Protein backbone atom coordinates (compact mmCIF):
# COMPACT_ATOMS: atom_id res chain seq x y z
CA UNK A 1 0.00 0.00 0.00
CA UNK A 2 1.48 3.34 -1.06
CA UNK A 3 1.71 6.21 1.39
CA UNK A 4 -0.74 9.09 0.88
CA UNK A 5 0.72 12.26 -0.63
CA UNK A 6 1.09 15.29 1.68
CA UNK A 7 -1.92 16.87 -0.06
CA UNK A 8 -3.96 13.67 0.34
CA UNK A 9 -2.96 13.49 4.00
CA UNK A 10 -3.97 17.14 4.42
CA UNK A 11 -7.41 16.56 2.91
CA UNK A 12 -7.87 13.38 5.00
CA UNK A 13 -6.79 15.40 8.03
CA UNK A 14 -9.61 17.87 7.38
CA UNK A 15 -12.34 15.31 6.66
CA UNK A 16 -11.61 12.60 9.24
CA UNK A 17 -12.07 14.77 12.37
CA UNK A 18 -15.54 15.66 11.05
CA UNK A 19 -16.20 11.93 10.58
CA UNK A 20 -15.06 11.20 14.16
CA UNK A 21 -17.20 13.94 15.71
CA UNK A 22 -20.11 12.88 13.45
CA UNK A 23 -19.86 9.21 14.48
CA UNK A 24 -19.56 10.07 18.16
CA UNK A 25 -22.55 12.43 17.94
CA UNK A 26 -24.70 10.04 15.90
CA UNK A 27 -24.05 6.96 18.06
CA UNK A 28 -24.67 8.88 21.29
CA UNK A 29 -27.96 10.31 20.00
CA UNK A 30 -29.24 6.90 18.88
CA UNK A 31 -28.10 5.14 22.04
CA UNK A 32 -29.50 7.70 24.49
CA UNK A 33 -32.71 8.70 22.74
CA UNK A 34 -33.68 5.61 20.74
CA UNK A 35 -32.36 2.75 22.89
CA UNK A 36 -32.31 4.06 26.47
CA UNK A 37 -35.36 6.23 25.71
CA UNK A 38 -37.20 3.09 24.51
CA UNK A 39 -36.27 1.25 27.73
CA UNK A 40 -37.52 4.19 29.84
CA UNK A 41 -40.83 4.67 28.08
CA UNK A 42 -41.72 1.14 27.12
CA UNK A 43 -43.38 -0.26 30.29
CA UNK A 44 -43.94 -2.83 31.59
CA UNK A 45 -41.44 -4.11 32.56
CA UNK A 46 -39.98 -1.17 34.42
CA UNK A 47 -36.45 -0.74 33.03
CA UNK A 48 -35.83 2.72 34.52
CA UNK A 49 -32.87 1.71 36.71
CA UNK A 50 -31.23 -0.21 33.89
CA UNK A 51 -31.74 2.67 31.44
CA UNK A 52 -30.29 5.21 33.90
CA UNK A 53 -27.18 3.03 34.46
CA UNK A 54 -26.80 2.62 30.71
CA UNK A 55 -27.09 6.39 30.17
CA UNK A 56 -24.55 7.22 32.91
CA UNK A 57 -21.90 4.71 31.75
CA UNK A 58 -22.24 5.48 28.03
CA UNK A 59 -22.30 9.26 28.62
CA UNK A 60 -19.20 9.13 30.84
CA UNK A 61 -17.23 7.13 28.25
CA UNK A 62 -18.58 9.33 25.45
CA UNK A 63 -17.66 12.62 27.18
CA UNK A 64 -14.16 11.32 28.00
CA UNK A 65 -13.66 10.16 24.39
CA UNK A 66 -14.87 13.52 23.12
CA UNK A 67 -12.66 15.54 25.51
CA UNK A 68 -9.60 13.38 24.80
CA UNK A 69 -10.15 13.69 21.07
CA UNK A 70 -10.50 17.47 21.28
CA UNK A 71 -7.32 17.67 23.35
CA UNK A 72 -5.26 15.58 20.98
CA UNK A 73 -6.62 17.55 18.03
CA UNK A 74 -5.63 20.91 19.52
CA UNK A 75 -2.38 19.97 21.27
CA UNK A 76 0.88 20.19 19.35
CA UNK A 77 2.93 16.99 19.60
CA UNK A 78 5.99 19.13 20.37
CA UNK A 79 8.78 20.36 18.13
CA UNK A 80 12.49 20.85 18.74
CA UNK A 81 13.66 24.42 19.05
CA UNK A 82 15.07 25.79 15.81
CA UNK A 83 18.70 26.10 16.69
CA UNK A 84 21.51 25.58 14.26
CA UNK A 85 24.33 25.39 16.75
CA UNK A 86 25.24 21.77 17.43
CA UNK A 87 26.86 22.46 20.76
CA UNK A 88 25.19 23.18 23.98
CA UNK A 89 27.10 25.51 26.21
CA UNK A 90 30.17 26.49 24.28
CA UNK A 91 29.37 30.22 24.45
CA UNK A 92 29.36 30.28 28.24
CA UNK A 93 32.60 28.47 28.71
CA UNK A 94 35.25 30.69 27.28
CA UNK A 95 38.48 30.59 29.25
CA UNK A 96 38.15 26.97 30.33
CA UNK A 97 41.10 24.70 29.67
CA UNK A 98 38.76 22.13 28.13
CA UNK A 99 35.78 23.99 26.67
CA UNK A 100 32.44 22.17 26.75
CA UNK A 101 31.77 21.29 23.18
CA UNK A 102 29.29 18.44 23.25
CA UNK A 103 26.30 17.69 21.01
CA UNK A 104 23.21 19.73 21.87
CA UNK A 105 21.29 16.84 23.48
CA UNK A 106 22.93 14.21 25.67
CA UNK A 107 22.18 11.96 28.62
CA UNK A 108 23.98 10.76 31.70
CA UNK A 109 22.41 9.40 34.93
CA UNK A 110 24.40 12.05 36.81
CA UNK A 111 22.72 14.84 34.87
CA UNK A 112 19.19 13.51 35.04
CA UNK A 113 16.57 14.58 37.57
CA UNK A 114 14.31 11.60 38.22
CA UNK A 115 11.50 13.61 39.80
CA UNK A 116 11.10 16.04 36.88
CA UNK A 117 12.36 13.53 34.30
CA UNK A 118 14.49 16.23 32.74
CA UNK A 119 18.18 16.17 31.93
CA UNK A 120 20.39 19.13 32.59
CA UNK A 121 23.32 20.50 30.63
CA UNK A 122 26.88 20.36 31.92
CA UNK A 123 28.05 23.69 33.28
CA UNK A 124 31.37 25.18 34.28
CA UNK A 125 31.10 23.94 37.88
CA UNK A 126 30.98 20.31 36.79
CA UNK A 127 34.03 18.11 37.09
CA UNK A 128 35.15 15.39 34.74
CA UNK A 129 33.44 12.73 36.90
CA UNK A 130 30.18 13.80 35.26
CA UNK A 131 31.38 12.07 32.10
CA UNK A 132 30.72 10.06 30.01
CA UNK A 133 27.54 11.30 28.34
CA UNK A 134 25.70 9.52 25.53
CA UNK A 135 23.46 10.60 22.68
CA UNK A 136 21.83 9.13 19.58
CA UNK A 137 23.93 10.16 16.60
CA UNK A 138 24.72 9.46 12.99
CA UNK A 139 27.17 6.70 12.08
CA UNK A 140 30.05 9.19 11.97
CA UNK A 141 29.17 10.45 15.45
CA UNK A 142 27.75 13.77 14.29
CA UNK A 143 24.44 14.83 15.88
CA UNK A 144 21.34 14.11 13.78
CA UNK A 145 20.36 17.21 11.84
CA UNK A 146 17.14 17.94 9.95
CA UNK A 147 17.82 20.02 6.84
CA UNK A 148 14.14 20.87 6.35
CA UNK A 149 13.61 22.29 9.84
CA UNK A 150 17.25 23.36 10.22
CA UNK A 151 17.48 21.95 13.70
CA UNK A 152 19.40 19.30 15.59
CA UNK A 153 17.10 16.41 16.40
CA UNK A 154 16.77 15.34 20.03
CA UNK A 155 16.77 11.60 20.78
CA UNK A 156 13.52 9.96 19.55
CA UNK A 157 12.52 12.95 17.38
CA UNK A 158 11.69 12.34 13.71
CA UNK A 159 10.77 14.47 10.73
CA UNK A 160 7.17 13.96 9.56
CA UNK A 161 6.74 14.47 5.81
CA UNK A 162 2.99 15.07 6.07
CA UNK A 163 3.37 17.76 8.74
CA UNK A 164 6.69 18.95 7.27
CA UNK A 165 8.11 19.30 10.77
CA UNK A 166 10.26 17.47 13.28
CA UNK A 167 8.20 15.99 16.09
CA UNK A 168 9.46 15.22 19.60
CA UNK A 169 9.23 11.52 20.54
CA UNK A 170 7.23 10.97 17.38
CA UNK A 171 4.87 8.02 17.58
CA UNK A 172 3.12 8.18 14.21
CA UNK A 173 1.28 10.51 11.87
CA UNK A 174 -2.46 10.02 12.29
CA UNK A 175 -4.94 11.54 9.79
CA UNK A 176 -7.75 10.69 12.25
CA UNK A 177 -6.33 13.35 14.58
CA UNK A 178 -5.27 15.59 11.71
CA UNK A 179 -1.57 15.53 12.57
CA UNK A 180 1.20 13.82 14.42
CA UNK A 181 1.05 11.98 17.69
CA UNK A 182 4.15 12.75 19.70
CA UNK A 183 5.57 13.70 23.07
CA UNK A 184 2.98 16.31 24.14
CA UNK A 185 -0.25 14.74 22.91
CA UNK A 186 0.46 11.03 23.19
CA UNK A 187 -1.37 10.66 26.52
CA UNK A 188 -4.49 12.33 25.08
CA UNK A 189 -4.31 10.08 22.03
CA UNK A 190 -4.06 6.98 24.21
CA UNK A 191 -7.05 8.09 26.34
CA UNK A 192 -9.01 8.83 23.17
CA UNK A 193 -8.54 5.33 21.74
CA UNK A 194 -9.09 3.76 25.16
CA UNK A 195 -12.38 5.58 25.88
CA UNK A 196 -13.64 5.29 22.31
CA UNK A 197 -12.95 1.56 22.29
CA UNK A 198 -14.67 1.09 25.67
CA UNK A 199 -17.60 3.27 24.57
CA UNK A 200 -18.06 1.22 21.38
CA UNK A 201 -17.92 -2.09 23.25
CA UNK A 202 -20.31 -0.83 25.94
CA UNK A 203 -22.84 0.35 23.37
CA UNK A 204 -22.57 -2.99 21.59
CA UNK A 205 -22.84 -5.19 24.68
CA UNK A 206 -25.66 -3.21 26.33
CA UNK A 207 -27.75 -2.89 23.13
CA UNK A 208 -27.32 -6.45 21.94
CA UNK A 209 -30.06 -8.14 24.07
CA UNK A 210 -32.63 -5.54 23.03
CA UNK A 211 -31.81 -5.92 19.34
CA UNK A 212 -31.65 -9.74 19.47
CA UNK A 213 -35.02 -9.88 21.27
CA UNK A 214 -36.51 -7.43 18.79
CA UNK A 215 -35.36 -9.51 15.81
CA UNK A 216 -36.35 -12.84 17.38
CA UNK A 217 -39.85 -11.71 18.34
CA UNK A 218 -40.33 -9.76 15.13
CA UNK A 219 -41.04 -6.83 17.43
CA UNK A 220 -42.87 -4.05 15.66
CA UNK A 221 -40.87 -1.53 17.74
CA UNK A 222 -37.57 -2.75 16.28
CA UNK A 223 -35.79 0.38 15.07
CA UNK A 224 -33.44 -0.08 12.04
CA UNK A 225 -31.14 2.49 13.67
CA UNK A 226 -30.52 -0.01 16.50
CA UNK A 227 -28.99 -2.41 13.98
CA UNK A 228 -26.89 0.35 12.39
CA UNK A 229 -25.50 1.49 15.75
CA UNK A 230 -24.77 -2.04 16.90
CA UNK A 231 -22.72 -2.75 13.76
CA UNK A 232 -20.79 0.56 14.08
CA UNK A 233 -20.22 -0.04 17.81
CA UNK A 234 -18.99 -3.57 17.20
CA UNK A 235 -16.54 -2.65 14.44
CA UNK A 236 -15.15 0.47 16.13
CA UNK A 237 -15.28 -0.98 19.64
CA UNK A 238 -13.29 -4.05 18.72
CA UNK A 239 -10.69 -2.44 16.46
CA UNK A 240 -10.12 0.65 18.62
CA UNK A 241 -9.93 -1.43 21.81
CA UNK A 242 -7.28 -3.57 20.12
CA UNK A 243 -5.43 -0.41 19.18
CA UNK A 244 -5.64 0.84 22.79
CA UNK A 245 -4.21 -2.50 23.96
CA UNK A 246 -1.26 -2.15 21.58
CA UNK A 247 -0.53 1.38 22.83
CA UNK A 248 -0.85 0.30 26.48
CA UNK A 249 1.84 -2.27 25.66
CA UNK A 250 4.02 0.42 24.07
CA UNK A 251 3.61 2.67 27.12
CA UNK A 252 4.69 0.04 29.64
CA UNK A 253 7.67 -0.82 27.40
CA UNK A 254 8.48 2.87 26.87
CA UNK A 255 8.67 2.64 23.12
CA UNK A 256 6.94 4.39 20.24
CA UNK A 257 5.30 2.86 17.18
CA UNK A 258 8.28 4.01 15.08
CA UNK A 259 10.76 2.41 17.50
CA UNK A 260 8.72 -0.79 17.64
CA UNK A 261 8.74 -1.10 13.84
CA UNK A 262 12.34 0.07 13.34
CA UNK A 263 14.71 -2.33 11.58
CA UNK A 264 17.98 -0.40 11.71
CA UNK A 265 20.38 -0.33 14.66
CA UNK A 266 20.79 2.83 16.72
CA UNK A 267 24.14 4.57 16.64
CA UNK A 268 25.02 5.90 20.07
CA UNK A 269 27.83 8.37 20.60
CA UNK A 270 29.73 8.18 23.88
CA UNK A 271 31.68 11.32 24.82
CA UNK A 272 34.49 10.67 27.30
CA UNK A 273 35.27 14.33 27.98
CA UNK A 274 33.82 17.75 27.27
CA UNK A 275 35.89 18.63 24.23
CA UNK A 276 33.50 17.04 21.74
CA UNK A 277 36.52 15.39 20.05
CA UNK A 278 37.01 12.42 22.34
CA UNK A 279 34.18 10.04 21.59
CA UNK A 280 33.30 6.58 20.28
CA UNK A 281 30.23 5.51 18.32
CA UNK A 282 28.59 2.26 19.35
CA UNK A 283 25.99 0.39 17.30
CA UNK A 284 23.05 -0.92 19.34
CA UNK A 285 20.67 -3.62 18.11
CA UNK A 286 17.18 -2.45 17.30
CA UNK A 287 15.66 -4.95 19.78
CA UNK A 288 17.60 -3.43 22.67
CA UNK A 289 15.08 -0.96 23.98
CA UNK A 290 17.26 1.92 25.12
CA UNK A 291 14.63 3.68 27.21
CA UNK A 292 12.75 0.77 28.74
CA UNK A 293 12.76 0.98 32.52
CA UNK A 294 10.46 -0.48 35.20
CA UNK A 295 6.87 -0.77 33.95
CA UNK A 296 5.54 1.78 36.44
CA UNK A 297 8.29 4.28 35.58
CA UNK A 298 7.47 3.89 31.90
CA UNK A 299 3.78 4.36 32.59
CA UNK A 300 4.34 7.47 34.76
CA UNK A 301 6.61 9.05 32.15
CA UNK A 302 3.65 9.15 29.74
CA UNK A 303 0.59 9.32 32.00
CA UNK A 304 1.96 11.46 34.84
CA UNK A 305 2.47 10.79 38.55
CA UNK A 306 -1.04 11.45 39.83
CA UNK A 307 -3.15 8.25 39.52
CA UNK A 308 -6.32 10.37 39.13
CA UNK A 309 -4.67 12.17 36.25
CA UNK A 310 -4.19 8.89 34.40
CA UNK A 311 -7.89 8.79 33.57
CA UNK A 312 -8.38 12.39 32.48
CA UNK A 313 -6.96 14.29 29.50
CA UNK A 314 -5.67 17.08 31.70
CA UNK A 315 -1.93 16.86 32.07
CA UNK A 316 0.58 15.19 29.87
CA UNK A 317 3.54 13.07 30.93
CA UNK A 318 6.78 14.24 32.51
CA UNK A 319 10.00 15.56 31.03
CA UNK A 320 10.72 17.99 28.21
CA UNK A 321 10.75 15.55 25.29
CA UNK A 322 14.38 16.19 24.37
CA UNK A 323 16.33 13.95 26.76
CA UNK A 324 15.10 10.59 28.06
CA UNK A 325 16.29 8.41 30.87
CA UNK A 326 18.10 5.38 29.49
CA UNK A 327 17.75 1.87 30.75
CA UNK A 328 20.59 1.57 33.32
CA UNK A 329 21.76 -1.77 31.96
CA UNK A 330 21.84 -0.39 28.40
CA UNK A 331 23.67 2.77 29.52
CA UNK A 332 26.40 0.71 31.23
CA UNK A 333 26.60 -1.74 28.32
CA UNK A 334 27.01 1.08 25.81
CA UNK A 335 29.69 2.85 27.86
CA UNK A 336 31.59 -0.42 28.45
CA UNK A 337 31.48 -1.24 24.75
CA UNK A 338 32.74 2.24 23.91
CA UNK A 339 35.61 1.87 26.40
CA UNK A 340 36.57 -1.54 24.95
CA UNK A 341 36.31 -0.15 21.44
CA UNK A 342 38.64 2.67 22.43
CA UNK A 343 41.10 0.29 24.12
CA UNK A 344 41.24 -2.06 21.11
CA UNK A 345 41.74 0.95 18.84
CA UNK A 346 44.56 2.25 21.06
CA UNK A 347 46.14 -1.22 21.08
CA UNK A 348 45.99 -1.46 17.30
CA UNK A 349 47.40 2.09 16.97
CA UNK A 350 50.20 1.09 19.35
CA UNK A 351 50.84 -2.05 17.30
CA UNK A 352 50.84 -0.02 14.11
CA UNK A 353 53.27 2.48 15.56
CA UNK A 354 55.55 -0.38 16.76
CA UNK A 355 55.40 -1.93 13.31
CA UNK A 356 56.19 1.45 11.80
CA UNK A 357 59.18 1.86 14.13
CA UNK A 358 60.46 -1.64 13.28
CA UNK A 359 60.03 -0.94 9.59
CA UNK A 360 61.92 2.33 10.00
CA UNK A 361 64.81 0.53 11.73
CA UNK A 362 64.93 -2.10 8.94
CA UNK A 363 64.99 0.61 6.27
CA UNK A 364 67.78 2.44 8.08
CA UNK A 365 69.85 -0.75 8.43
CA UNK A 366 69.26 -1.64 4.79
CA UNK A 367 70.25 1.89 3.74
CA UNK A 368 73.44 1.76 5.83
CA UNK A 369 74.37 -1.61 4.33
CA UNK A 370 73.71 -0.36 0.84
CA UNK A 371 75.84 2.77 1.38
CA UNK A 372 78.72 0.79 2.84
CA UNK A 373 78.65 -1.65 -0.13
CA UNK A 374 78.71 1.33 -2.52
CA UNK A 375 81.56 2.78 -0.53
CA UNK A 376 83.65 -0.45 -0.65
CA UNK A 377 82.94 -0.84 -4.39
CA UNK A 378 84.25 2.72 -4.91
CA UNK A 379 87.46 1.85 -3.05
CA UNK A 380 87.95 -1.25 -5.20
CA UNK A 381 87.76 0.68 -8.48
ZN1 LIG B 1 12.47 18.25 10.42
ZN1 LIG C 1 2.76 14.35 10.95
From TrEMBL:
The keyword Isomerase does not apply. GO terms for cellular component: membrane. GO terms for molecular function: protein-cysteine S-palmitoyltransferase activity. It is found in: Membrane. It is an enzyme of class 2 (transferase). It holds the Pfam family DHHC. Residues 141-262 form the Palmitoyltransferase DHHC domain. Its EC number is 2.3.1.225. Keywords: Acyltransferase, Lipoprotein, Membrane, Palmitate, Transferase, Transmembrane, Transmembrane helix. It is a multi-pass membrane protein. It catalyses: L-cysteinyl-[protein] + hexadecanoyl-CoA = S-hexadecanoyl-L-cysteinyl-[protein] + CoA. The DHHC domain is required for palmitoyltransferase activity. Belongs to the DHHC palmitoyltransferase family. This is Palmitoyltransferase. The lineage of its organism: Eukaryota, Fungi, Fungi incertae sedis, Mucoromycota, Mucoromycotina. The gene is PARPA_12413.1 scaffold 45109.
Amino acid sequence: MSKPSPLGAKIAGLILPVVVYGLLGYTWYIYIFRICGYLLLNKPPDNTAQAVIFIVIASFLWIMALLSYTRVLFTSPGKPSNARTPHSTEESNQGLVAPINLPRYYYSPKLYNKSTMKGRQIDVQDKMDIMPVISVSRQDGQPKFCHMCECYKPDRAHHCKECNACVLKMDHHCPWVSGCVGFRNYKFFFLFVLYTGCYGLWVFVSSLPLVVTGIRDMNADLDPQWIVIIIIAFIFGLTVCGFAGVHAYYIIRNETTIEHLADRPNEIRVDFDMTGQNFEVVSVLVDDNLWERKKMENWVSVMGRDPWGWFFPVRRGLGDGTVFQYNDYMFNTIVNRAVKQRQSMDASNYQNSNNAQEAQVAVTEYEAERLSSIDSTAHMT
